[in-house]
Specification:
- With 160 residues, the chain is α+β, with helices and mostly antiparallel strands.
- It has one domain: FAS1 domain (Roll).
- 39% of the residues lie in helices and 25% in strands.
- The chain has a 7-stranded mixed beta sheet.
- The longest helix is centred in the first third of the chain and has 20 residues.
- It starts with a helix and ends in a 10-residue tail after the last strand.
């Protein structure tokens, strides 16, 4: 009888410890910050002053380029973005769509981004594409939206 009680207590403590290690739901900004392959995006969002916005109510759909995606952007373009916070913010908000759009909800056509420009979204089977970027990991839920990890950096068309 005594051994059963010990086993019960050990099992209960283990179950509670499992609960303690589960992460609480977090914002889109915190989700990006906690994802190592999105560290460049996280840094740029901070530089552009968008972190607090992405911790806000939302909901937001973020098409999040990986570090490898940013590495493919020409150095000249990255240099221009680093020098021009307004341009950086315009590029980053081109990756944000108001509302929570899960991969299953993507329709072929244009969607309005937070920066005001339209972006082409398409879906073929389970594949989702934004402009020329392919979604690598879809539907990372956050408390205020969803993050889709993409393999390149869509750049908004120049305003004339």
């Amino acid at each position: 009888m005594f051994n059963r009680r010990i086993l019960f207590v050990v099992a209960a403590v283990a179950a509670l410890a499992g609960c303690a290690t589960r992460s609480n739901p977090v914002s889109v900004a915190d989700t990006i910050a906690a994802t190592p392959q999105l560290s460049m995006l996280n840094s740029l969002l901070t530089k552009a002053g968008l972190t607090d916005t992405l911790k806000g109510t939302g909901p937001f759909t973020v098409f999040a380029p990986t570090n490898e995606a940013f590495a493919k952007v020409p150095a000249k373009t990255m240099g221009e973005l680093a020098k021009d916070p307004a341009k950086l913010k315009a590029v980053l908000t081109y990756h944000l769509i108001p509302g929570k759009v899960m991969a299953v909800d993507v329709k072929n056509g244009n969607s309005k981004t937070v920066n005001g420009a339209s972006v082409a979204l398409s879906k073929a089977g389970d594949f989702v594409i934004i402009e020329e970027a392919m979604v690598q990991t879809a539907d990372i839920s956050a408390t205020n939206g969803v993050v889709h990890i993409i393999d390149s950096v869509p750049i908004p068309p120049a305003k004339h």
